[in-house]
Specification:
It contains eight helices and five strands, in the order ααααβαααββββα. It has two domains: 67 residues; 94 residues, Glutaredoxin (3-Layer(aba) Sandwich). By secondary structure, the chain is of the alpha+beta class. A hairpin with a 2-residue loop joins strand 4 and strand 5. The structure holds FE2/S2 (inorganic) cluster. FE2/S2 (inorganic) cluster binds next to helix 5.
């Protein structure tokens, strides 16, 4: 399946790579646009290898960039994203409890928690992806959670449940 997808994407990837040729910070732009090509908002291994080959940038350097920026994904993402801040200020204000709450609610296993901390965790129905971030830069508002790009402050489990249900209801009313 990955091979078939790569055959389709090569033309688009070539377009993206030539668009950024010689531009400062071109790798970031290439990766951002390449990620947008995928309906599940992630950069597949084959895509990274292809970019490395065409740009002469080592795959290891590409990985360094991807893992530095939270908006790049190495795994398929769900329709909605929930990002729980795990920085010191948010941790002190019990952000781990928020993460545990989501893990239980979505039926993940306890051992999956490490995936949410390291990369991302997506529900089986592909509706939600849960991730963590080192700091949103909004420490005074701790604990902070981002849902579908919107930042929510002073989060509680109750508030989080209402926001996530609201996201689902909005979608089903469309
Ligand atoms: S530690 Fe959470 S926003 Fe800074």
């Amino acid at each position: 399946m990955e091979t078939a997808q790569m055959n389709v994407d090569k033309i688009k990837l070539d377009e993206i790579i030539s668009r950024y040729r010689g531009a400062p910070g071109s790798l970031l732009g290439i990766l951002e646009d390449a990620q947008k090509l995928n309906p599940h908002k992630y950069l597949a291994q084959g895509v990274l290898e292809y970019i490395a080959e065409k740009t002469n940038i080592p795959v290891s350097k590409i990985y360094n960039v991807i893992t530095f920026y939270a908006f790049f994904n190495l795994k398929p993402q769900g329709d909605h994203s929930i990002i729980v801040c795990r920085g010191t200020a948010c941790h002190t204000r019990r952000s781990k409890n928020l993460l545990d709450y989501l893990i239980n609610w979505f039926g993940f296993k306890e051992e999956d928690l490490a995936d949410a901390e390291k990369s991302s965790l997506t529900t089986k129905d592909n509706k939600f992806t849960v991730k963590t971030v080192a700091c949103f830069g909004q420490c005074a508002l701790a604990p902070v959670v981002e849902v579908d790009g919107n930042i929510y402050s002073h989060m509680t489990e109750d508030k989080l449940r209402k926001i996530v249900k609201g996201v689902l209801n909005k979608k089903s009313k469309r």
